[in-house]
Amino acid sequence: MGLILQIAWRFLLAKKRAMLMSLTGIVFGVAFFIVSQAQTSGFESFFIRSVWGTNGALKVQDRFQNNVASMLAGEEQDGFKVELKEGRSYVEGVEHPALIIEAVRKFREVSGASEVLRGSATAKSGFREDECEVYGIRLSDYLSVSNLGGQIRYGRIEDFDSDPQSILVGIKMAERLNLDIGSTLLLRRQNESIRFRVKGIFETGVEEYDKRRVFVHLRQARDILNEPHKASFIQVSLYDNYRADKVAAHMQEVLLHDVRPWQKSEKTWLEVFSALRISSGITMSVIIMVAALGMFNTLAIIVMERRREIAILRSMGYTRQDVVRIFIGQGVIVLIAGMVLGCALAFFLTLGIENLPIRIRGIFSTDHFVVKWSLWHYFWACVVSTVVVLVASYVPARKAAQIEPGDIIRGAS
């Protein structure tokens, strides 16, 4: 095997310039594949963490009751079960939030649960007013299912907790209504109105939330929304938020309430990130394919120029399989060098990109590029380059193995 690699290396050196171009293509193809996956996966992971920090892992909301049609359809016969959601009747909100929270916390996957009362109102400051979405919360519970404390940009969360007439407003609303810490804000709904003092301004990065959402204490929310007992939903966090869909299915059967996991709420954006990740992977794979085509052409030229040497090797006792190994060995040498240099380049590029400044506000908030460090990105880059290069090397190798030494010698004579 060592002698075969030596011959492969000598053949390779005969076309140093062409092979160097192929090597360069593989290096940049592997590096860009890894970097693009790191960026796309990084922004996706950051978006998911933003969702957890704002809306929790799942929400327990409207109570449902199966009617006769759905009950009959749900009967198991021969291991077959059909559920008709259209046959359910829903009651909006959570009628007994304390009991539901107690039941939710009995699930071993649950790390926190918070009662939330939500409703629309009009926010007025001076001569300006705007529509808003009121969130009534118990701060200690809500901090266990969200990152509200980390989203405060101005003011202190402790000041909000100690003052029942305090309010937290989004940064966009604060700009629109010219609010600052200590400003007075009037919330009005129908005939009810309550005056609050701004104790904190938060920024989630999601423009719709920062423009409309306000947080007040649960008791004040009940007064202004005229809802003395019910909750709009129970926000829940899990020890492993990635299992939210499985936990939600189990919880829904037990609680007889609609339980919505974050995977379902953010399905559209998750599909967008998945499409971007696949698209970038395909695009970067094309670079590797172009480099492999260059290698294919170079190996094909070597076969034509080295027919006499190949015939001599065959006449010396080298088999067809040995000839195939010689030419595949050339591809393997370039491939290994390309993968090592490409992975090293990807590491330094990712490290540099991670520190590049960028301001993004919309579906999440960040002031620099977000990347995800994962060995799987390196693994798949190496897999793609290996498959492409070996396929490109195998065809010329088979062509070289078909050379008959007798025909070449007779032709030369």
Reading the helices and strands in chain order gives: HHEHEHEEHHEHEHEEHEHEHEHHHHEEHH
DSSP strand content: 15-25%
Q: Terminal Cα separation, in Å?
A: 32 Å
Q: Helix- and strand-based class? A: alpha+beta
Mean pLDDT: 83
Largest sheet: 6 strands, mixed, barrel
Count of DSSP E strands? Answer: 13
Strand adjacency order, main sheet: 3-4-9-6-8-7
What this model shows, in words?
The protein is of the alpha+beta class. It folds into two domains: 195 residues, no CATH class; 137 residues, no CATH class. The protein is built from 17 helices and 13 strands. The strands form two sheets. A six-stranded mixed beta barrel has the order 3-4-9-6-8-7. The radius of gyration is 32 Å and the shape is elongated. About 2% of the residues have low confidence.
Topology, please?
Elements: H1 2-13, H2 16-55, E1 58-66, H3 68-73, E2 88-91, H4 97-104, E3 110-125, E4 128-137, H5 139-143, H6 148-151, E5 152-155, H7 157-162, E6 166-170, H8 171-176, E7 184-189, E8 192-202, H9 207-212, E9 213-217, H10 218-225, E10 233-238, H11 244-255, E11 257-261, H12 262-265, H13 267-305, H14 307-315, H15 320-354, E12 357-361, E13 365-368, H16 375-401, H17 405-412
Parallel strand pairs: 4-9, 6-8
Antiparallel strand pairs: 1-2, 1-10, 1-11, 3-4, 3-7, 3-10, 5-8, 6-9, 7-8, 12-13
Helix pairs in contact: 1-15, 2-13, 2-15, 2-16, 13-16, 14-17, 15-16
Sum up the structure in keywords.
2 domains; alpha+beta; two-stranded antiparallel sheet; 6-stranded mixed β-barrel; 13 strands; 17 helices; 413 residues
